[in-house]
Amino acid sequence: MGKRDWRKLDESDVRVRPGKGTRPRSKRRPEHADAETAMVIGVDRGRWTCALESGVIVTAMRARELGRTPVVVGDQVGIVGDTTGLPDTLARIVRVEERTSVLRRTADDTDPFERVVVANASQLIMVVALADPPPRTGFIDRCLVAAYAGGLEPVLCLTKSDLASADALLALYTELDVPVIVTRSDEEPAELRARLADTVSCLIGHSGVGKSTLVNKLVPDANRAVGVVSGVGKGRHTSTQAVALRLPGGGWVVDTPGIRSFGLAHITPDDIVKAFPDFAEAAEECPPGCGHLGPPEDPGCVLDELVPDAAGRLTSLRRLLASRAGIDDYAD
């Protein structure tokens, strides 16, 4: 076509480049109404092991539309794709249901990065040895704080009672009404087994306290590695990642790696107080930013005045608050 006089051009001479599609783009994602519900029972290098409600165990990857949505052990998820559970098959996690509880921790009290240990557990079983290694109340207090803040019921499980008495330790937690289970290495943990039935429970504790030994008794085919206590009184790490194990009588137990630190940087004093109904309402009368520790740390705290008949529980509560603030005997 030869040159045209630009003065004689009209709209018919304008060429409009067609779009890439016949329909406008949409940000709507598929609803996956046919997705099967499953529970995440293990995580390993970008692959999630999931148990379907039918009992089938499948391996899944996170769907692209989830982006970097965190998926942890205990999460209830929706799965599509190949859900046969056959070798070398791979399904997709397309949604993560809202969590009913979350156990979080940080590396230390200054670390801003939260690590979700387990989701949707109803109980936190704090496994503590009465000897070899000796119990550390700072660790127990921090676990209590994390449980109260995360919506889990804390349960204190004392092991190795054949080596030392539990009386002195139990006296410290009487006012908190924490359920206690005492076990021996030479007996079956019948009471603990009954406590875990038909629930999702998380076991946490230092290495060497007998946690893996308990798991092997509760789930005979678990084959969790059992370590020994070192000469300096610290256990060796025998579990390397959290894993949910199906209990023979129904329910799940989540075995977590033995830990040396339990940071609480993500938890505020008010988060702890909310777990105690008799103090939560009174705490609203405290000045903003109150740590509820009382004088001299918090001279404006009014908990002593407004709840005068609960001095024992207030002492226990303040021990937990002091643990959160790093004012305790907890150390590696």
How does this model look, in words?
This protein has 332 residues and is of the alpha/beta class. It folds into 3 domains: 36-96, Nucleic acid-binding proteins (OB fold (Dihydrolipoamide Acetyltransferase, E2P)), CATH 2.40.50.140; 102-225 and 238-255, P-loop containing nucleotide triphosphate hydrolases (Rossmann fold); 269-325, no CATH class. Helix content is 19%, strand content 22%. The chain contains 8 helices and 13 strands. The strands form 3 sheets. The chain has a 6-stranded mixed β-sheet with strand order 10-9-8-11-13-12. A 5-stranded mixed β-barrel has the order 1-2-3-5-4. Strands 6-7 form a two-stranded antiparallel sheet. Helix 1 links the parallel strand 8 and strand 9. The longest helix is centred in the middle third of the chain and has 14 residues, at 137-150. The protein is flat. Residues 227-239 have low confidence and may be disordered.
CATH architecture of the largest domain: 3-Layer(aba) Sandwich
CATH superfamily of the largest domain: P-loop containing nucleotide triphosphate hydrolases
Strand content: 15-25%
Helix tally equals: 8
* Total individual domains: 3
Low-confidence spans: 227-239
CATH class of the largest domain, anyone? Alpha Beta
* Number of beta strands: 13
* Shape by Cα distribution: flat
Walk me through the topology.
Elements: E1 36-44, E2 47-52, E3 57-62, E4 76-81, E5 91-96, E6 102-105, E7 115-119, E8 123-129, H1 137-150, E9 153-159, H2 167-171, E10 180-182, H3 190-196, E11 200-204, H4 211-218, E12 243-246, E13 252-255, H5 269-273, H6 277-283, H7 303-306, H8 311-324
Parallel strand pairs: 3-5, 8-9, 8-11, 9-10, 11-13
Antiparallel strand pairs: 1-2, 1-4, 2-3, 4-5, 6-7, 12-13
Helix pairs in contact: 1-8
Subunit structure: Monomer. Associates with 30S ribosomal subunit, binds 16S rRNA.
Region (Disordered): 1-33
Subcellular location: Cytoplasm
